[in-house]
Amino acid sequence: MQLQTRSSVARAAPAASRTRCIKVSSAAHVAGIREEAIERGRNDPASGLSARFVPFKDVQQAKLSGEEYSLDTVVYRSKDGGLLDVYHDMDALKRFDAAHWKKLFDGRVGTTLWPYGSGVWSKKEWVLPGIGDDDIVSMFEGGTNLFWAERFGREALGMSDLWVKQCGNSHTGSFKDLGMTVLVSQVNRIRKLRPGAISAVGCASTGDTSAALSAYCAAAGIPSIVFLPADKISLAQLVQPIANGALVLSIDTDFDGCMKLIKEVTAETPIYLAN
Q: Which class for 26: exposed (0-12), middle (13-18), buried (19 or more C-beta within 10 A)?
């Protein structure tokens, strides 16, 4: 069986049928799409966009206090112990109108264009605008099916046209893949900027978080550590972090106990807290 690269398939197909041919990328071409992404980034008109951490209460009150942190800083809480939120430069975003964003996003989603074929990274400018495409850790997550639940909608909810988003048919079987691609990508960036700043990524979990974390860390070559409550998760949930090479610790406590321990460990070591 002869394997053709994407470019050779396109040349071999008749002009009228090129849009229907199956495109198979060789290993060499996979490296090429990453290089192409880096080159595109140098000429990106939206490269002036930015985001930063601010206290979550500032966002709630719609008034910035002046406390802020770079996304490249390892920080989990504001000065008063509250949560942090990612705050985007809205003035910079407003330089582009709705028509621009719609055309940009629609042209990316569902393609094999690195990394924009991902349902998350197709909207990179609204997620992590400052990260380089070569730092992104993605398995082209997202874009999962919408299933028509006609009967359930009609009989249970009184709705005539109900569609259900099925996030369970993702890489690890959890919607948490959608957030984990962002977290691990940012960790990957920090590790490149400051080697030694982060040695591993850890989490407390009852299943889904550990599966997603271990999968994306494995893809990036980053060590992962998982604290699980003993005898409180299914075998299916335990298999994934082990198969992905994570250090799995079964602790004789509940989730809250695991969370307390992982916080203590990450506070004293260069292990990044994923919870």
A: middle
Confidence (pTM): 0.82
Distances (CA, A) of 103 to 106, 133, 193, 249, 264: 5, 20, 33, 46, 46
E strand intervals along the chain: 51-55, 84-88, 146-148, 163-165, 200-204, 224-229, 247-251, 271-273
The torsion region of residue 138 among left (phi > 0), alpha (psi -120 to 50) and beta comes to: beta
Q: Is 60 exceeded by the pLDDT of residue 238?
A: yes
> What is the distance between the alpha carbons of residues 262 and 97, in angstroms, rounded to a whole number?
43
Dihedral Cα 141, 139, 208, 126, nearest 10 deg: -50
Write phi, then psi, for 85 (nearest 5 degrees). -130, 155
Q: What angle do CA 238, 242, 246 make, to 5 degrees?
A: 120
Pairwise CA distance, residues 259 & 273, whole Å:
10
Q: For position 12, what pLDDT does the model report?
A: 37
Alpha carbon distance 202, 268 (integer Å): 13
Supply 190's token pair. Answer: 């920090």
